[in-house]
Amino acid sequence: MHKQIHPKSLYWGNTVILLNTIDAAGSTNITPISSSWALSNNIVIGLSLNIKAIENIETCPEVVLNIASANLANKIESIASYTGKQPVPPEKLKSGFSYCEDKFLIGEFTAQPSKTVQPLRIQECALQVECLVENVIKRDKHAILELKAIHIHAEESLLKNGDIIDADLWNPLINNFRSYHGVSESIGKNFRFDN
Question: 3-class SS at 32?
């Protein structure tokens, strides 16, 4: 039997992405997100309007989507309660967020230059997608961003037949009802995202 429910947020989960944006000073900010979908080289992501990533995108409409694998859950958790926005917005302060200028350092991520966009890539992510932001639709407290993928990087060990991702080797990190999961196992709970 089904019961009618009224969840605070209608969100059933998706792949975890570390969204890299760049500010006016040239610093790359990392924002963990998981609201996305893709069709061909068109990608749509959802973000909260009160985060540094939105501010950065308004300055430079270029991003890198670093697609997280399950082994990165602890590194992502280490940056989850930090924001690149200063001062920290009141709603984030209430949730325990602090300001962090360098999430690469806190998360122990390795920065890599991008081929076609300004934000840096994250070496530890086996899949990285450089994108141009083509449209931003602001709705309520969120933004829907339409992206165009212009360069895709993949760890060679995940590939078969040249440029096909081998699904048997790829274990993406999934945000499923506020918990981390890999393809075949539960990894942890109680994380935060800015989207």
Answer: strand
